[in-house]
Amino acid sequence: MTLPIYAIEQAFLAALEHHNVIVHAPTGSGKSTCLPLWANSQGRVLVVQPRRIAATSLADYLAGQKQQKPGQDIGFAIRFEAQLSEQTQVVFATPGVALRLFFENRLSDYDVVMLDEFHERRWDTDLLLALLKQHKSHRLIVTSATLNDERLAGYLSAKTLHSQGRLFPIDCEYLADSSVSMPSRFDLAPRVREACAYALEHSSKDILVFLPGRAEINSCLSACRDLPAEGTALHGASPVSEQRCAMQEGTQRRIIFATNVAETSLTVPGIECVIDSGLERRTHLRKGKTVLGLDAIARDSQLQRKGRCGRTAPGLYIALFGEHAPLLAQTPVEIEREALDELVLASACAGIAIDNLELLTPPAPSSLARAKQTLSKLDAIDAQGLATELGRRIYPLPVDAELGYLIEKMPSSTLRQAMIDLAAVIATPAQLYSLPNQDTLTELAKALGEHLKHSDIALCIAALRGQCNEYLHIEETALTEAQTYSNYLRSAYQLPELERCASFDYQALIQAIARVRPDCIFVRRDNRRGGFGNGELEIRPAKNSLLGEDQEAALVLATFALAGKGKKHADTLATLCAPLTLKQVLEFAPTTARLSDYYWHPDEVNTGEGLAGEIRATLSYSYAQVTLRSMDTRVDDEQLLPALTELILDGSLFPGVAQQVSDALAYHNLYLLYQQQEQNLATAGEHLRARLVELGIQSQEDLMLIEAEDLYYQGLEPWQSKEFMERFPLQLVLPGMTLDIEYVFKAKRVIAHYHSGERKDPPKRWELPSWSGLQIRYKKASKVVDIR
C-alpha cells in the first residue's frame, strides 16, 4: 500500500539538498517512517521524537522492514537505553537525549536532524531547534500535523512542503447532554463503558479510547472487563511487552485505553473507532511553579484523535462532550505554561545564555527571571547565565535541578546513596506503593524503626530497597522504573548498585536535606485548612502521606499541585514528607528574630539616683509567620535606642517627656505655617532618637546619666512659644466642652472640633480667643456651624 507521503518524495529530496525543510502532513501519512530514510541520502540522520514509545516503536518497525534488529542500520536512544552503533544511519531519540548529545559534541556525528511532531511544542524541542538554528551545522527537517507553517518557515528560512493524508469517511457521535457540553471527569468510567458497548455494536474492528492518565485508564479497564473485547493499556510507563501488544493486531477485538501517546507519532493498527474523553493532563504555571491540571483538549488535539479512526477504512468517532463545546483552538505551547528552570539550565549547558538565544516563542520575562534566580541560588549558573561546573554536573542527571543539587550536597557516601534512592522515587511518575492499614504500619515500624511510622521519606527508601515487601503492596512497574533511576544515578557517582546499598542514619539524612534546602521546611499554620507553610507556599499533606495531623513541622520534598480556576490559585498537596520538631526548624530554617513588648524592669534596690533597672523585651523567633519560640530577654545595645524611644513615647520612662515633645513640635509646626515658612520637622520619635544619639546613649548603663529635661524639644525661643501658645492654643477647655483647634492660615480660618463634654450647644464667640481676622467654624460630627 502506497503511503500519501510518497507524493512529495522527489520535491522533498530536491528541497533538502539546498534548504531546511518543513513538512506539513497529517498523522498517519507516513512522514515519520519515510522522511528519515529519504533524508539518509544527505548523511546520517537523527530523528527527535517527543515520546519514548514512538522512538522505540518506529525504530523497531523500520529495522523490521530491513529484516534487522534495532542497532544496525536503524537505532534508537532513549533515557536509560540505547541501541545503536557508529554504523547506524538513522537514530530515533527523545529530545532530552538529543540535547545531551548536543552538549557533548554539537551533534557532530549527524548531518541531518529531523524534529518530528513539532506541533506538540515541547520546551525541549523548541530549545533544540533554537540551538541548531544558531549553530548552523545541520540540515533541518521539521514535521508538523497542525502548526503555523508560515511563522516557522520564516524562523528557519525553510522551504515548506505539504502532503495530503488518506482519510476515509468518519461518522461522528456526540454523547453529551447538550451540544455545548464541555469534557468532564465526572462519572468518566461508566460513560466510557457505555461508549465502548455502543462501539462494539456499531463497529467491527479495534477501538481506541483517549483518556487523560494512568488512573483513568485503570478505572476504565476495570469498568469494561465484562465487555467482549480484550482491554489493553497504552501510556508512557507501559511495559515494553504491553506496548508491543498494543501495536499489533490480534485475533480478538481489542479496546486500547491510551493517553496522548497515541495521538501523534504512533499509528495503532486495526483502529476503526475512536472514543474521545476530551480530557488531557496539561501543565500550567501557578505562583511560579509547574502544576498539573486536568483540562479539556484543544481543537487541534481533537482533530488528531478523530483522524486515528479513518486511516485504513471508514471510521466511527465518539466524543463524550458536545459537538459545539467551546474548546481552545490550539494547545498552548509548553514555554508559556511551565517553569523554565530546565530550559535555562539546558541552554546554559549548551554554552549559550538563554538571553542570547532566539526562541520561536519568547518566554515570559517574569518566568525567565524566576528561573534564573532559582538556578543562581543553586549555584548552577553564573552571572553571565552560563552553566557552572556544578550546573554541568547536575543537568545530565535524570532528575530536576533541585534534586540534583541535593544529591551533590550530601556530606557522605551513605547519605548520597539514600538521597539518590529518594530522588529515584520522586522522579518516577507512578506511585511506588499503597499504604497499608494502621496495624500493618505499626508492625512495620516495630520491625524496621519508629521513624518509618510517619515519614514518607524513610518509607520510600525502604520500599525501593526491598525492605517492606511483606508489609506493603508494591507497584512492580513503578518499582522497576525507580530502581532503574537509582542504578543510573549510582553509576554516575560511582556508587554501589542498589542491591548492595549501604545503611544510613535517618536523622542525619533529614538534617542534611534541611541544611541544604531550608525552603523545604514547612511549619503548621494556625488556620482551618490544616496547612503547612514555608513563607512562600502553603501545602496540605496528601491522603497517601504518612505525616500525622499532630505534627508541628515537616520536611517536604515532593508536591502535587492541582491547578485551580484562577491564574494564581493552586491547591498544593505534599506527597513526600518527614516530620520535624520545632527545635529542628529553629536550627535549620531561616528564622526571623523580633523584639516586642518592651518594658522597664526596675532594680529591686533603687538608690534613688537616676534610672536603676534595665529595659527588657520578648524575643520571638518565627518562620513563615509562625512563632516558634519566645523568651524574655534584656535588650542589647543594638536594639536599645528603638526600645528606649518606644518606652518614652508610651510614658513608661520619663513620664511627661513625650507630651512635651509632641506639644512643642505641634506648636513649632503651627508657627511655621503662620509665618508661611516651608520646613519639615521631625516626628516626636525621630526627635527623641536623635537626642539620645546626641547624648551618647550606647548602653543601658548610660541611662543613669540623663534626665527628662535633656530630651525636651526647644524649637522656639521661650518668649516666642509663650506668646504664640496664648494666641493660638491647640486645645480649649470650656464649661461642659473640650475643643481641638485646627488652624488653616492660608484660608484665614479656624475650625473648633468637638472633642468631648456634655454640652450640646456650640461655643459662644466671647468664650473663644480673639483670633483677629480669622473666620471661626465649629464642627461636631458632620455638622458645621459658623461662629460669629
TrEMBL record:
CDD domains (alphabetical): DEXHc_RHA-like, SF2_C_RHA
Residue intervals of the Helicase C-terminal domain: 191-351
Native species: Pseudoalteromonas qingdaonensis
Domain of life of the source: Bacteria
Entry keywords, A to Z: ATP-binding, Helicase, Hydrolase, Nucleotide-binding
UniProt xrefs under SMART domains: DEXDc, HELICc
Molecular function (Gene Ontology), one example: helicase activity
The name this protein goes by in its record: DEAD/DEAH box helicase
InterPro entries referenced in this protein's UniProt entry, alphabetically: DEAD/DEAH_box_helicase_dom, Helicase_ATP-bd, Helicase_C-like, P-loop_NTPase
Record carries keyword Nucleotide-binding: yes
Alphabetical list of Pfam families matching this protein: DEAD (PF00270), Helicase_C (PF00271)
Residue ranges constituting the Helicase ATP-binding domain according to the UniProt record: 12-165
PROSITE patterns found in the cross-reference section: HELICASE_ATP_BIND_1, HELICASE_CTER
